[in-house]
Design goal:
With 378 residues, the chain is an alpha/beta fold. The chain has 12 helices and 13 strands.
């Protein structure tokens, strides 16, 4: 079984969230005996670095399209279709000729299979309208949102094989494409990169994420302004650390025990220093990689239903909705080292059983086999 996987970012252990998950994806497929190769785009926003040496991946630089009427016309015909054009798209089509299955990771790659004869799938990580409210189209963010919605719609309608990162995403894909073969395959990470956190130090809660994603920025603001003050009233010696690109520029309210550090070099090292991941997300879709990283590290999580989407970690993740409930659950775990360790052990065990590369990619391998045996009607 030969599979060509197309990635929006290079697979890097400390790259962007899709890049971190791509390492686990490729290693999981190889564990199941798939002869996998990958083509990864290095776009202008990609984190520097080279993929691990054991991964069969070719990284191709992709420059943003220059402004002008031609680029605008391309965006109308093929919304978010930059990777399907030019050198990158041509390379995908060339390499796909020797594959049994073409795996398109994220909807941004969905136009790369035009003109390809082998069966293809799109792995949908999230649906942007569940993450962001509508914005006026004369604003840059509004145009980006509209174009992404149109790109998702085209990807879902054009493909008969769809993969969802969570059951909620799968339900929406089945509603939009009733005749498609829809499979749930969770995101995955390389376990060896996330050693179990000790959890035996002073009580430290944390949140990590990029402030460029509005849902994460709103979660950080809610945490600092409404949830954390209640935690501190119950656990006076507890500390909160907020990390990630742009977090230090959000203007989060200063308070005793709160530290905003901005960008950190390693999310794994950051998580290893926590007693708890506290993530009061209000809206969002698909699996949240920060929650997956936390349970991989054996760090208990307190989050909302949106934050826990697609992750079944038993006692390792406490799900609550209101500020009061989130604060009470966090304070209880921070104040009790025994509960902290019990929930951390449950989180790590659930990750290894459900979200390590082997079990997480098994649904994909089963789908590949069906796809390779399938041929379109004449």
């Amino acid at each position: 079984m030969k599979a060509l996987v197309v990635l929006t970012q290079p697979p890097l252990l400390e790259g962007g969230a899709p890049g971190r998950c791509a390492v686990g994806l490729l290693r999981g497929l190889r564990l199941h005996g798939v002869d996998v190769t990958a083509i990864a785009a290095r776009q202008h926003f990609a984190v520097d670095g080279e993929p691990p040496g054991d991964l069969p991946v070719r990284v191709v630089p992709v420059d943003p399209e220059p402004p002008g009427w031609h680029a605008r016309a391309n965006r109308v015909r093929r919304p978010r279709g930059e990777l399907g054009r030019g050198r990158f798209g041509a390379l995908v089509r060339e390499e796909a000729a020797g594959a049994d299955v073409l795996h398109l990771e994220e909807t941004e790659t969905a136009w790369c299979d035009e003109g390809v004869s082998v069966p293809s799938l799109v792995h949908v990580h999230y649906l942007i309208r569940r993450d962001r409210p509508w914005l006026p189209p004369w604003r840059r963010e509004g145009r980006f949102l509209l174009e992404t919605v149109l790109a998702e719609r085209a990807a879902i309608r054009r493909h008969g094989h769809l993969v969802a990162s969570s059951p909620l995403i799968a339900d929406e894909l089945r509603r939009r494409a009733p005749s498609a073969d829809v499979v749930v395959a969770p995101l995955t990470l390389e376990p060896s990169h996330y050693p179990p956190a000790p959890l035996d130090g002073p009580p430290v809660a944390g949140l990590i994420g990029t402030a460029r994603w509005p849902a994460t920025a709103r979660a950080a603001e809610r945490l600092a302004a409404r949830v954390w003050p209640q935690v501190r009233r119950s656990v006076a010696d507890a500390r909160l650390v907020v990390a990630g690109r742009g977090m230090d520029r959000l203007g989060l309210p200063s308070a005793p025990g709160v530290e905003v550090v901005g960008h950190v070099g390693s999310s794994a090292e950051f998580l290893a220093g926590l007693s708890l991941l506290l993530f009061p997300l209000e809206r969002g879709s698909g699996m949240k990689v920060k929650v997956l990283e936390a349970i991989a590290s054996g760090v208990p999580v307190v989050t909302t239903p949106a934050g826990a989407e697609g992750i079944d970690a038993g006692d390792g993740v406490v799900v609550a909705a209101s500020d009061d409930e989130l604060a009470a659950a966090a304070a209880r775990i921070l104040a009790d080292p025994g509960e902290r360790r019990q929930r951390g052990d449950a989180a790590r065990e659930a990750f290894l059983r459900r979200y390590a590369p082997g079990p997480a990619t098994l649904p994909l391998v089963e789908l590949y086999r069906r796809m390779a045996a399938w041929s379109p009607p004449s």
